[in-house]
Amino acid sequence: MGLKRTDEFRQDAVRIALTSGLTRKQVASDLGVGLSTLNKWITAHRDTDAVSKEDLSLAQENERLRREVRILNEERDILKKGHPILRGPKAMRFKFIEEHQDRFPAKRLCDVVGVSTRGLRAFRRRPLSLSQRKDLVVLAHIREQFRLSLGSYGRPRMTEELKELGLADGHRRIGRLMRENGIAVKRNRKFKATTDSNHSSNIAPNLLSRDFSAARPNQKWAGDISYVWTRAGWLYLAVVLDLHSRRVIGWAVSNWMKRDLAIRALEMAIALRRPPKGCIHHTDRGSQYCSHDYQRILRQHDFRVSMSGTGNCYDNAAVETFFKTIKAELIWRRPWPTRRHAELAIFEYINGFYNPRRKHSALGWKSPLAFEAQAA
């Protein structure tokens, strides 16, 4: 370091020590010089009056502006993290301060969220109330069930799940705890049409007429085809549901939306359930379902064939609801690098969660398997 640079460094060090409001020990540590050396520089400065009054005034103003910018940046970052907290009760704001005091000064946090440091100290000393201890227990169960549900349970299903575990808490408490702790379902979508009604095959009448209830298993089935976007291209998913329990009884995936996709799903359902004569089989008017091969299988097993009206998704609302559910709870949650990744996840979702565990409001908040077992 040259002599000129050394002199400039000394002058800057002296200005900081005299105007920053920091202790000399802090300044010496920040600049990497010894405390005794800094003291000598300050003594020499006072003896020679090396810094003019104008320079000193400018340094003080610069330091004041730097302090203000630092405070504003801290307040901005606090508000970005805690803006919903500002509308919450004081206990919620105190908890927010406790969680972020390692990043921001406690006093700054108190100022931003609108509480006093005295109140914070009292909050820290105050023992947890019975209600707060109960909140911690319920919150632990909420976090666990949210994880087990693949992040798909909102307030209504979470309330029913906790009731089944013996926690008879109301939906307001559970909703509040989920809201305060950022536990919420996330959704987005990508669209692709899957129904091709432009064909000359025979069309069956709509026997369901939007009545998706069934008094017993194997009375009414419904099927449809949807899609999953992967980085390797589209993956098509065909399913067959038993409308009695909303259980997925047949499903298949394929890179191409050909008639054998729907046939494989149907054959799985038939092998699993051995349906009796007269079971209603309902789909849309897509070419896969109107094909000769598909209709031949339905005739062989004495199904009563039913089809939706042209372009009317409400005529097959039960299956549309399933597709919306699996997309919101699984497909839209993350990108899929290959079709194989998506296929394995779908298998796990249907057989590991949807059929055995997922609760449905239409089934009295029971899973499809539990509902079938109850009806048996």
Short description:
With 376 residues, the chain is α/β, with parallel strands linked by helices. It is built from 16 helices and five strands. The N terminus is likely disordered.
Structure in words:
- This protein is elongated.
- It contains 16 helices and 5 strands.
- β2 (233-242) and β3 form a beta hairpin.
- The protein has helices spanning 3-19, 24-31, 35-48, 53-82, 90-100, 106-113, 117-125, 130-148, 155-164, 171-180, 259-273, 287-290, 292-300, 317-329, 339-354, 368-375; strands at 220-230, 233-242, 247-254, 280-283, 304-307.
- The longest helix has 30 residues, at 53-82.
- It has 376 residues and is of the alpha/beta class.
- It has a 5-stranded mixed beta sheet with strand order 3-2-1-4-5, with helices on both faces.
Strand content: 5-15%
* Helix-strand category: alpha/beta
Shape: elongated
Report how far apart the termini are. 89 Å
Q: Which regions are unreliable across 5 or more consecutive residues at pLDDT < 50?
A: 1-5, 190-197
Number of strands: 5
In the sheet with the most strands, the strands line up as: 3-2-1-4-5
Oligomeric category:
single chain
Q: What's the pLDDT, averaged over the residues?
A: 81
Total number of helical segments?
16
Order of helices and strands: HHHHHHHHHHEEEHEHHEHHH
**Rg estimate, integer Å:** 33 Å
Q: Tell me the helix content.
A: 40-55%
Describe the sheet with the most strands. 5 strands, mixed
Q: Which terms would index this structure?
A:
alpha/beta, disordered N terminus, five-stranded mixed beta sheet, 376 residues
